Amino acid sequence: MRIIFTLLLLLVSATGSAAPKAELWPYWQQSNEANTATIDHSLWQHTLNKYLVLHPQQTLFRYHAVSSNGKYDLDRYIRKLAATDPRSYSKDEQFAYWVNLYNALTVQLILDNYPLKSITKLGGFFSFGPWDEKLLTINNNALSLNDIEHRILRPIWQDARIHYVVNCASLGCPDLQPEAFTADNSEKLLEQSASRFINSTKGVKVTGSKVLLSSIYNWYSIDFGNKSMLQNHLNQYRKGKHVELNSISYDYDWTLNEAR
Q: Could you tell me which residue ranges the DUF547 domain spans (predicted)?
């Protein structure tokens, strides 16, 4: 029995370290570039203003402080997005929609299961985290966090910086941004997020000739390219001395990004 249990743990661990591939869900490719309407993200911005705490190297979330009204407003925001057909909006408006929805759903998942030490504790016995759980329905399509990130955002926009703006509620993750995404500020926030992460020790930590990188660069190496391409990408945002990727190791901290 002990051997079987050990094998199951190894299976779960292996599943957690295998990043999903970007596989397009064609249904979500449609857009209406003639539509100049915008989607209101003020409820999400209100949540960020009230509960997100900014530190020099990390943004943390005050999950313990979220009131019943705060939970209601977050749920109202998510339900509003779920009732919106993003395909009827422009591509820029859609990008902000999906990023904000992903991050809001992640926060809601933590709140629904709080207290906990790590998002990886959620999901079924054979799951490493909740990313495959169907969390909401849009246009009669049930979606999970993995659907949003790997079947919509990554394959449609094909921008490696997406990894810097979808937050997994963990200390090792790129920071949850204090601004809600909009069609107008997405490019600024993408650049800001990339720079902040790459210049943090959780993104890139240099010790002599050794470089400790976030596991994101290992899991999603297909998005960042070969070693030379990744090095160029990092140095595009690095402040100070450029990094040389000669001796690389990877790490990731799954501890909850909680502010006490």
A: 87-198
Residue type, 42: S
* Mean pLDDT of the region 25-51: 98
Who's near 59: CB < 8 A, 6+ residues apart?
52, 53, 175, 176, 177, 178, 257
How confident is the model at residue 127, as a pLDDT? 77
Query: 15 versus 163: which is more confidently predicted?
Result: 163
- Average pLDDT rounded to a whole number, residues 116-129: 89
Q: What are 221-228's contacts with CB under 8 Å, separation 24+?
A: 222/21, 222/22, 223/22, 223/154, 223/160, 223/163, 224/160
**Cβ partners under 8 Å of residue 65, min gap 6:** 51
